[in-house]
Each structure stands twice: as C-alpha cells, then as structure tokens.
Amino acid sequence: MAYLDNIAVFVRVVELGNLSAAGRDMRISPAVASNRIKELEKHLGVRLFNRTTRQLMPTEHGTVFYGGAKQVLEAITEAEAAVSALSGQPRGTIRVTAPLGLGRRLVASGIPDFHDKYPDIEVRLRLSDHNVDIMKEGIDVAFRLGIIEDSSLRMRGIMECERVLVAAPKYLEARGEPMEPQELIGKKHDCLMLRYSGAREYVWTLQTPTGPQKFEVHGPYDTDDGDVLTGWALSGRGIINKPRFEVEPFIRDRRLKVILSSTPPTPVQFAAVYPHKKLQDPKVRLLLDFMAERCQRLINDLLAGK
Predict the structure, then answer these.
(1) Is 49 helix (H, G, I), strand (E, B) or coil?
(2) Which residues contact 6 (CB under 8 A, 6 or more apart)?
(3) What's the CA gap between 206 and 181, in Å, rounded?
(4) 62-80, pLDDT tens digit by residue?
(5) Residue from 134, 140, 139, 144 nearest 99 by CA
(6) CA-CA distances (angstroms) from residue 227 to 38, 105, 110?
(7) How far from the centroid of its chain's Cα atoms is residue 9's Cα?
(8) N or C: which end of the chain has fewer CB within 10 A?
(9) Cβ neighbours of residue 147 closer than 8 Å, sequence gap 6 or more
(10) Residue 196: pLDDT band by 50, 70, 90 thresholds?
(11) Distance of alpha carbon 230 from alpha carbon 259, whole angstroms
(12) CA distance 7 to 77
C-alpha cells in the first residue's frame, strides 16, 4: 500500500502543481508528501519533477509515468467500486465542489446527513465560484449553475431555476427604475457582474418579445463571489442578476425589488456534472440521488417562503 500511496501523491502533485496543495487535498503535511515523492523517485531511479520556487513541473520521465500511474489509480478505483456494488456497502471518498452561495445554502448542510446515512463514505467539499477544472483537480461531482459545455463530462439536471434582476429601493429611488432592457445601457445603470477566470457569461441575456437578447451591461465593480454581489445590491450599489431562490427572502421583506419582470433573464440550469466513468461508482450514484432530491426540496421551500 505504501507504493500505491506514493503513486497517489505523485498524481495529485502533478495535477495541482505543488506539494502544499496536494498535501491539503490528501490530508497529509507537505513534508510527508515530499518524502513520498522522494521514495518514488528512489524506487524508479529517475527525477520526476523539476523544482521551482512556486511550482513543481514534471520532467519527461514524470510526464510518462503520470499517464500510466493515473490509469493504475483509476483501475483500482473502478475495481473497488465494483466490489462495493456487489457487497452493497459503498465506501471510500467523494470529492465534491459547488459555487459558494449555492454550496452554503443547499449542499454543505446536506453532507452530514448523507454521512449519517452512509457512514463509510467520506465527502470532501470544496466551495468556489471559480470554474473548477474537474478532470485536472480530481473532482468526482460538481454542482453548477449555468452553461455546461464540456463534452468530456456527463450531466444530471436537477432543476431549471428562474432568474431575476433585482435592486434595492434605495438604488432605484436615486437612479430611477428601468422600464425596458435598453435603459440598462442607455441610462448607464450600475449592473454588478460575477467575474472570474474562465467565466463565459459577461452579458445579461433577457427574454424579450422577439426572443432571447444579449445586453452588454456595465458596472463600476465586479467580484468572483456571488454573495458579495448580493451584499452590494442590498446596500443600494446596483442591479444584480440572480437565481430567484437565492434572493427570495430579500424580495419578500422588500429589501430588494424585482425589475423588468416582463423581460426577465433566461433561466439557469442547476445540475451535477461528473466524469463519464464516475456513474459506475455506487457511492457517486448515492450522492447524486440524495442531493438531487434534497436540493429540489430546499429550493422549492425557499421560493415558498418556508
């Protein structure tokens, strides 16, 4: 097992680029990760990495070894999944990621309940509004809101979510309430955007009488955190485009007002995505079933004001 552990550390270092990140991911210290890489290099008799101050880059030997090592680990994972399916006792670790706001509201609170139901399954949850590279970072399941274009991934739709444009009464009193979409641009409204590396949607697509239309809106600042956007809107700083379930409590207590309700944003797909082979793993299927039912119920409760 020690040799396999060394291979697993090597693969994560290649994928994450440094010992610290790989150590955090595998719950070992950077020193332990470094020792395992050294043991593997000693066993193979070659150097696997070129070391810089910030990153470890695989050597030619390391690149070649990575391809085979990845296949070995995937084969072991598939074999373990097959045994779990036969025994009816799924076990192991699932790496999950979700956007910050959605993850906090819907996913994170369900992880303890899932573990109570399946105590032999560990879940490692990572919350980020950045576009996480599922294949590179070894993610098993990613919950996402928005456009999903990666053909190397499979998708399980959970539900289509209504989106709304909202702003605080304070902002609308100061700047005027737009009555048609063109006023967002013509009257230079402060439209606050979610932006991050790899983001694709830098426009707002609204449902107009002639069909979906893209509007290149602008604002004085943006962020990579969806909850920060909501905070700015609540303080009267501008207009935001959000899934309705995220802002429904503020709409109900009139801290935010829906605008342009006759030309709302196009709905957004809430879905779980995962690598093709992962659905063969019973623990992944169990998590998908559990979270899909739970998230649908929670979203409907939020929209109903429960």
Answers:
(1) strand
(2) 36, 37, 39, 40, 43
(3) 8
(4) 888 988 888 888 777 777 7
(5) 144
(6) 43, 11, 20
(7) 23
(8) N
(9) 200, 201, 269
(10) low
(11) 15
(12) 14
Choice between 175 and 69, residue whose per-residue pLDDT is larger = 175
CB atoms within 10 A of CB 293: 12
The predicted model scores a pTM of 0.72
Cβ contacts of residue 280 below 8 Å, gap of 6+? 78, 81, 82
CA distance readout (Å), 270 to 56, 109, 142, 160, 192: 36, 17, 11, 6, 21
Backbone phi and psi for residue 64, each to the nearest 5 degrees, phi listed first: -65, -45
Give me the amino acid identity at 159.
M
Task: Name 228's Cβ contacts closer than 8 Å, sequence gap at least 6.
Answer: none
Percentage of the residues of the chain whose pLDDT score is greater than 70: 91
Does residue 193 have a pLDDT over 60?
yes
| pLDDT one-digit tens code per residue, 7-20 | 888 888 888 888 88
